[in-house]
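Internal ticket - ligand job 335, acetyl coenzyme *A:
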Amino acid sequence: MYRATIKGLGYYVPENIVTNDDLAKRMDTNDAWIQERTGIQERRHIKKGDGNSTSIMGVKAAKIALERAELTTKDIDMIVFATLSPDMYFPGGGVQIQDMLDMNTVPALDVRNQCSGFVYAISVADQYIKTGMYKNILVIGSENHSGGLDFSTRGRNVSVIFGDGAGAAVVSRSDDEDSGILSTHLHSEGKHKDELALQGPSTEHWVPEIIEENPQEDIPYYPYMNGQFVFKHAIVRFSEVIKEGLDANGLNVSDIDMLIPHQANLRISQFIQQKMKLSDDQVFNNIQKYGNTTAASIPIALTEAWEAGKIKKGDLVVLAAFGSGFTWGSVIIRW
Ligand code: ACO
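stdout (structure tokens):
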């Protein structure tokens, strides 16, 4: 068995900053409500004509990660691309990235696990590296939420939360026995699939059917979220799966140097921090600036924390996510 390690990190967010006050011009909401419930102050949205898309943002993040890993696209053996907001229904965004980065005909695998997408993607990469099949894998999470949200008052409970952006990691085989990805832990519970979902357009809800059958108030081609239900499950599953990862490695909560939780909602992160008795130094949050960027949130936060010098060689870094599905997972890394 080989050990996998994160060799390079990068992120990209669109330049266009959208504040809570900007949103209040489009729907009945206000800065106080959004900050109090979610902690979010602003987020980035792709602007028409700025040249961005889900896969293009992924490419921008990937280029930075590759440079930091001191590798070229020709060194990459596989792409694992996580998103819930692809540019196209099919094919997946991974092949667009393979093309834009002018890569060899390497496999491009799309992962559809929403807010847990990056954790699932890292786990997939880890398995391929461990078995010795591949040496360098590009793992990307990218989302263009603003392209598909309801910015009328009807969609306000969802649309104020989400933002656009991308993050990437180069996961590589390592000879260092003492560092790298120690373990990954994944879960799902599909019985809650409807509590946070975008139902169509899909084969079950095709466009003419949607228009015919749904009154304006209940359009299934915008995301639906049962916010309080999601909140209650998130706080339980986050702490469970972090604990599961620590136990698997004979570690304790006090061993964590940096927890990077999926940036779902600042209140969720704070609740987990309190429940697990973690200090402010042990948890990194940046949802205040970017909103919830789903599959991109962990790699963006991980990169920012690393850039700020908050993650050092030898640190125990824990990634944890929970989201639509429901799906959840954790990654335990010795940096
Ligand atoms: N601005 C102003 N008022 C709003 C807004 C808004 N953007 N959205 C909803 N409201 C109103 C509602 O209409 C409702 O009004 P009413 O009482 O007159 O009916 C009132 O605020 C309360 O609505 P709730 O939905 O009960 O608000 P709640 O306190 O539950 O907060 C929130 C909503 C923030 C979504 C909360 O449920 C939550 O944090 N849930 C966790 C889900 C989450 O964070 N998901 C993130 C994405 S999923 C993930 O990444 C795992």
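Auto-summary: The chain is about 30% helix and 25% strand. The pocket of acetyl coenzyme *A is lined by residues 29, 33-34, 37-38, 115, 156-157, 160-161, 196, 225, 227-228, 230-231, 234, 264-265, 267-268, 292, 322-323 (CB under 6 Å).
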